[in-house]
Specification:
About 65% of the residues lie in helices and about 15% in strands. The chain has a 5-stranded mixed beta barrel. Among the domains are: about 1-65, no CATH class; about 70-155, Nucleic acid-binding proteins (OB fold (Dihydrolipoamide Acetyltransferase, E2P)), CATH 2.40.50.140. It has 17 helices and 7 strands. Strand 1 (about 70-85) and strand 2 form a beta hairpin.
Amino acid sequence: MKIQEFCKTHPAFLAAISFSLAIGSALFGVSIWILILLGLYLVWNHKWGAFSLLAFGGFYATQFYTPPTTPCECTARFSITSLQKRQTPFHKNLAYQGTLYVDGIFVPCKIIHADSAQRPCAAHDYLVTGTLLQEEGCRYLFKAKNWQPISNSWSLAELRFRMKSRIDAFIHKHFLRNKTASFLSCLATGDPPERQMTFEFARLGLQHLLAISGFHFGLLMAFIGSLFPLCVPKIWKWCLMLFFMTLYFVFIGSTASVQRAWIGAVLFILGKLMNRRIIALNLLSAAMLIELIFNPLAIANLGFQFSFGSCFGIFLFYPLIEKKMRHLLAKRSFALALSLPLFSQIAYLLTSSIRRSLSLTLSVNLIIGPILLYHFGKFPLLSLLYNLFFPPLVALSLLGFVIAVLCYFLLGSSALFHILDWYCAQLLELTTYPPLLLDRSFYVQNVSYYGIIFYFALLLLFAIKSRQEAIELR
């Protein structure tokens, strides 16, 4: 009964799960028995919309993508979606990300090109000749020998690359420390930082902080909303937010976490414009469903799994864990907190922050932890500690960067750049030199795929039961 009530109030969640399992079955061999059991449940409860997605999702995915034969020599059309600088220990290259059309087959791939003045312009499509290689799963590499531009084609990748290069140059000009400049450039443009910084953040389970996410879009929405006085009609404010959200999305480029954040922001704004009730879990599920419809292969992307997994963990488990944590770190009413002595107020704010941070970390890692173990066979224990305090510090650095840039252009003052430079240097020291005694990882080799599915199924049932019981007690 509790499951039926949950599915009734969260139809988008059931639809997204059904569609993702159908895609997984068609492209990556998810057990057919899982689909049969879910299909029987959907039919029994007359969930015909979700059942349709489960039944036809696999067919849709196979029509969208067919694995090509590799390696193969071919001449094909290459449509560029992004251009990024790529640094190895020995060379600096450019990575062209895009879509290769080989004999009518859609192949997502990248082409590595030497960083030189002779590079192909990313403003249009090309007819490329070379060798197609499979790197891993659905990731492909094309070694191009010849580039021939195709007339009457266009791409925003070149304009995006040049704009990001100018922002990167501006940041490196005003920040003395190269590592700080690289860190802030990553937060501002979404391009990956140098390899050493990527390794340091990944070692601590903080790599998600280097990707553009919902926080960036939320900060932009808050900033835009604060610019308008109360007398401005709400419809104009929401329409302008929608415009700037889309403009920011076009500037950053399409990645799994960016797509999720942008689609979520668009759905949220549309809900406000239509005066509809917004349920966070439905909104996130709808964003996942839309992203998979446009690109079923996204389900195999680690960024997609981590981005949606962490958000589902927060929406499903954070309220439950935070409520349980109140037994250890009590929550007081606002009036009672104000009546406490000053020292007690400070202590209460500190313990409240710890309670929320710990609840957030645990809720995210209930989902992300098993995914990390499945893909990499290890889980960094310092991730539990660093995720308690490090995300707010990174958020503060991004907010400080926005304020420093505004002060520079409006007041002509660069003082905040120097303060932020020092602050970020101290922040990055924490990732470069973590506590050695705690720098350990939990290793589990050969994690069973069916074990992961069983774990998530039990976890979901527990979350549904607990949520519905909490609703009934209200």
